[in-house]
Amino acid sequence: MPLGVQLRGLIEFGIALGELPTGQRLPSVRELADRAGIAHMTVATVYRELREAGLIEAKPGAGTYVGDGHNSDGLRSNAIRKIQRRIEMLFNEAEQLGLAPSVVSSLVNARAARGRTMSRPVRLVMVGNFVETTQQYANRIQEHIGPGDSIVVTTVDALHAGEAFPLPCDICVTLAHRRGEVEHLVPSGIPVVGLSFIPSEETRAQLAMIDPMARIGIISIFPEFTALMKPGVLRFAPHVSAVDVRLITAPDLAAFLAQVDVAIYASGAEATVRQLLPPDRQAMEFRYVPDPHAIRATLLPVIERLRSSINPQEEEPS
After folding, report:
1. Which of 74, 148, 239, 315 has the most other CB atoms within 10 Å of its CB?
2. How many whole angstroms separate alpha carbon 236 and alpha carbon 199?
3. Is 76 a residue whose pLDDT tops 60?
């Protein structure tokens, strides 16, 4: 696998799992290249791609840092231009109806001063990689939001394929490292919140109980994350030494699975692994769940700000 793909996967996965939190300083291009023993151009290319995706940002004279998933200045500028166009349309319509600009200004000022004190339940959409696992993520998030709030799911692939985004929606939630990509797939005006993830309690417990002498086979789906699957397993099963990794598309996957005692597979790979794994072997999913700290610190404040600004009497356009 190209070194650039591995490096980008390491950084993206670190952001997705919260190991590289927003604001953390990253090594310079030269420092990282020397440390990893790869070409400076490779590191520079990866950093450029991550900046374009909104995952990292360069601060002149200060270095490179993990970003919040999008270019906030660009987003704010786009929002202002959008509002300016609507204001222009509003005054043009008022002129056609014979209303003076001063009347429209008075109405706008009155609306701004009135504020919104009423609220209604918030509607969320979770965008993930696979429907089943995304629904599991949504179920976890549901435990932290209001009893009247709702959350439905879709996938990145479905949106890329042209499937309609679930509406109505107040907030879109996705994986931290895919936030920039998802922002281009949701309707304009819907805020996108990226969450970090941690291994589930069940996964941590199962890994800790693996026989130290067992031969472990790890099956990854995404090439860019393959490099991190092994250290992710060994973090919770440090007592195991015989560990190897394969991509789910590897031509020797069946032979590989025939030689292991325990198959640990990424979410979404279960059907393939169960089909090829000998019946007397153990299989377990390396399952992630939304980090509850990220939900509390990142998502809930956005929900509460939005909740206080939504008027329950406002209806969605038909």
Report:
1. 239
2. 10
3. no
